[in-house]
């Protein structure tokens, strides 16, 4: 059963994007990304040879009202599209009686690998299930399109079947991998991540309360240094040739001291509003890439010379998985520096709300580092924390 969704009057906003209906003023942006060889071909249509082609297709987008323009906040340009189309599920006996839509997307080549499509897809999934009462969403990719496969899997879809898709405009047949996401499955995942959702809300609220450690007065900065401080920064062994990842970047308190000392800096945090504040605080640096997401499920495009985290592992229940993932992300000889709180209470009381945490046991952390193939180079204590400095072997394998 095809769900009726008109995108022309909608506006969805994410951390880095605004999804809205296309308009005639988008023509130049549309042609800019659609004319790049290899972009349209990944979705089954040829790149645009001239702006007249883009104009004709843009006109159909506006008239059919089922395609979002993906507008990038930082560049102020439309960098892609996301459509909600008639789904093959309507013709599948298993799903024919369910309200459905097919999600399709294209994004400019310059923005591949930045996590923007999953960000847009998640927003649209939420809208379809919560506002339009869809019961099943479908998505697909050509067998050779590994990037799209990662997007689909990261968005919660599960593989359903393989078929053959005939791309009329290209005159070619492709092996088409089809995926489904049931609303019941999506809701179950949201229930399972309920505690993380509470944490996300907590840190969003801290930003709304103007709690920003990156701009703390000197007395508060000195207090926060009791968890990390100069000894922690020195343990990173930064230099201008190294790539760095911070797990739990927050508003950028430590990143402000790191970004200027490395080649590239990536920071991840689960709170959208915290990441937005970090982006503001770190805007003077040109070597940063900030990700709003769950560290355990985020797919990173590369490896890192240095990975560090301070006061974040107390929010991670699956510590073994987190440390093993960290080891897998390090380059040969790469370094992991972790600051863990000495506080062993199972929750933090902020007065107006309480946040559940998973205290870090130093002995357990040492064991998990070893299990993950990391060598503990140093362990030291500050007033409020235990700091671990570990390194992966310089020889792969």
Explain this structure.
This protein has 397 residues and is of the alpha/beta class. It is built from twelve helices and 17 strands. The protein has an eight-stranded mixed sheet with strand order 1-2-3-4-5-6-8-7, sandwiched between helices. Strands 11-10-9-12-13-17-16 form a seven-stranded mixed sheet. A two-stranded antiparallel sheet has the order 14-15. A hairpin with a 4-residue loop joins strand 7 and strand 8. Helix 1 (27-34) packs across helix 2 and helix 6 crosses helix 10 (272-281). It is elongated and about 65 Å long. The termini are far apart. The mean pLDDT is 90.
Characteristics of this structure?
397 residues; alpha/beta; Aminopeptidase; 8-stranded mixed β-sheet; 7-stranded mixed β-sheet; 17 strands
CATH architecture designation of the largest domain = 3-Layer(aba) Sandwich
E-strand count: 17
Alpha-carbon distance between the termini?
52 Å
CATH superfamily of the largest domain: Vaccinia Virus protein VP39
Overall number of structural domains: 2
**Sheet with the most strands?**
8 strands, mixed
CATH topology of the largest domain, anyone?
A: Rossmann fold
> Beta-sheet strand percentage?
25-35%
What is the subunit organization of this protein? single chain
Shape: elongated
The main sheet orders its strands as 1-2-3-4-5-6-8-7
Rg, rounded, reads: 23 Å
Based on helices, strands and strand pairing, what is the structural class?
alpha/beta
Question: What is the succession of H and E elements?
Answer: EEHHEEEHEHEEHHHHEHEHEEHEEEHEE
**Residue-averaged pLDDT:** 90
**Low-pLDDT residue spans:** none
How much helix, percentage-wise, in residues? 25-40%
CATH class of the largest domain, please? Alpha Beta
How many DSSP H or I helices? 12
């Amino acid at each position: 059963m095809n769900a009726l969704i008109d995108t022309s009057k909608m506006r969805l906003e994410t951390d880095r994007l605004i999804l809205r209906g296309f308009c005639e003023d988008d023509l130049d942006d549309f042609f800019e990304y659609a004319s790049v060889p290899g972009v349209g071909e990944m979705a089954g249509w040829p790149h645009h040879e001239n702006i007249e082609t883009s104009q004709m297709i843009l006109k159909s987008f506006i008239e059919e009202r089922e395609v979002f323009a993906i507008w990038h906040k930082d560049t102020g340009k439309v960098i892609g599209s996301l459509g909600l189309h008639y789904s093959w599920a309507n013709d599948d006996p298993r799903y024919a009686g369910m309200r459905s839509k097919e999600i399709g997307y294209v994004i400019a080549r310059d923005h591949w690998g930045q996590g923007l499509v999953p960000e847009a897809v998640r927003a649209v999934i939420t809208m379809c299930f919560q506002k339009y009462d869809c019961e099943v969403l479908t998505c697909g990719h050509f067998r050779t399109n590994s990037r799209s496969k990662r997007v689909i899997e990261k968005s919660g879809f599960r593989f359903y079947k393989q078929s053959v898709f005939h791309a009329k405009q290209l005159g070619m047949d492709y092996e088409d991998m089809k995926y489904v996401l049931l609303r019941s499955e999506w809701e179950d995942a949201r229930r399972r991540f309920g505690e993380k959702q509470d944490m996300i809300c907590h840190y969003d609220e801290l930003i709304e309360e103007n709690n920003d450690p990156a701009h703390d007065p000197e007395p508060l900065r000195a207090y926060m240094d009791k968890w990390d401080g100069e000894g922690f920064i020195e343990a990173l062994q930064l230099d201008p040739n190294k790539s760095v990842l911070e797990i739990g970047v927050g508003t950028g308190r430590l990143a402000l001291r790191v970004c200027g000392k490395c080649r590239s800096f990536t920071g991840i945090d689960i709170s959208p509003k915290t990441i937005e504040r970090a982006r503001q605080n770190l805007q003077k640096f040109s070597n940063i890439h900030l990700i709003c997401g769950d560290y355990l499920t985020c797919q990173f495009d590369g490896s890192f010379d240095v990975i560090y985290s301070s006061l974040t592992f107390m929010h991670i229940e699956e510590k073994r998985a987190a440390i093993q993932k960290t080891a897998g992300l390090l380059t040969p000889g790469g370094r992991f520096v972790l600051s863990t709180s000495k506080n062993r209470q199972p929750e933090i009381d902020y007065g107006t709300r309480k946040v559940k945490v998973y205290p870090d046991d130093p002995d357990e952390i040492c064991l998990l580092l070893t299990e993950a193939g990391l060598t503990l180079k140093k362990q030291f204590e500050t007033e409020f924390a235990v700091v671990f400095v570990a390194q992966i072997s310089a020889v792969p394998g």
